[in-house]
Sequence to fold (302 residues):
Amino acid sequence: MKTISLNWQVTNTQDGQLLRSFLRDEKHLSRKALADVKFKGGKITVNGEEVNVRTVLKSGDDVTVFFPPEERSENVPLYSLPLHIVFEDEHILVINKQAGLPTIPSRDPNEPSLAGAVLAYYDECDIQTTFHAVNRLDKDTSGVILIAKHRYIHDRFVQMQKENKIKRSYMAIVHGKMNQLKGTVDASITRKEGSIIERKVSDVGQRALTHFQVEQTTTEGTLVRLELETGRTHQIRVHMNSIGHPLQGDTLYGGRTKYIDRQALHARSINFVHPIKEEEMFLEAPLPKDMKNVLTALKAKS
Fold:
C-alpha cells in the first residue's frame, strides 16, 4: 500500500526550533495527528533518520512525516462506479458528482454512495486512507465535491472553511422570471417542526447568506448563479423558495417536476489556495445534460 507522507525543508528562520514546534506551529499538525503518527504506525524522519519530536532542527534539514494507515468505517459499503474526476494529486481529489448519488451512505446497504465509490477507487490505486469530504452535496444535487486524501489536508481545509477561504458557486434553475437581477438573501434557517429533513426560514435559526445573480430569464424559469457565505443544510433551496422562486423539480420546497424530476441545482465551481502547494485553484464542472434540457424547454416555451 502507498504510504501517505509530507515533506518540508527547514528555513533559516526555523533554525533551532524543536521539531514539535515546527510541526505544530509552522505546519499545523494537530496533537491528534502527531499522536497517531507516534502510536499507530507512522514515523518522522529528519534527513532520512527516524527521530522524535524533541529533535532540534537546523536550517536545511529535510523533515518528512509518514502518516499511519487510516482506519475506515465498516458502515461504508464499497461500490465500483465511474468517477468523473475534475482534478487529482497526492493530497486532494475533486469529483463532479452525478445527481442521484448520495455523498455518504444511506440506511439502505444496497444503495451506492460517493464515499463507497471513492474508497473502492482508493483500493484500486493502492491508497491507504479513508473518505474525507470537505463539502457535501444532497443526493439529487450534482457538481463539484472536494475530497481530502488524508486527515492532515482535511484539517487544513476545515480551518480554511471557518475562515471563509473556500469559495463555491452554484447554478440553479428556479420557477418564474426573476425581476431582481442581483441580490443577497440574508435569512436564518432552522429545522422544520416534525421533520428530520425539511428546513425553513426562521428568526431563531442559524444565520445564512446566499448571493445570487441572474444569468438567463424566461417567462417560466430563470437560470441563477449563487454563492454561499454559509453552508446550512438545503440553504439554496430554502432561500430561493423563501423569495418566491423555488427550484425547478424541488418538490420538498415548492418546486414542480414538469421539466426535471430532481432539484435543478448544480455545484458549478470551487476556488481555494492549495494548502500544500500554495497555488490558486479554480475547478469547475459544466452544467449537466438534464439542466441544459430544462433551459432548452424553457426557451422553447417563451
The helical segments are 19-26, 31-39, 114-124, 151-162, 235-242, 289-301. The mean pLDDT is 93.
